[in-house]
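In this supplementary section we document a worked example of the pipeline. Step one takes a protein sequence of length 82 as its only input; no multiple sequence alignment statistics are reported here. Step two produces a three-dimensional model, which step three serialises into structure tokens for compact storage. The input and output of this example are shown verbatim.
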Amino acid sequence: MTRIIATIVCVIGVFAACASPTWVYEKRGATPAKLDHDMGLCRKEAHDPQTIALPGSPRTDRELFNRCMERKGYTVRSDKPS
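The serialised model returned by step three reads:
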């Protein structure tokens, strides 16, 4: 019974991950290192322990994170999966 429940939870997690949009952050002249640095700062700012996340994913309020990235000069857009 436990194995069945674990399998169901895993399948739901896979489908949930597939349905979530991929976010793109662009800024003219930004290096990959600068992007990583800015994302790390915004991740700390937008950390929300109440956000439900998949195992291994940060608990981040995506709206706060995106606003932080925009304040840093990035264009934020969503590439929704087709």
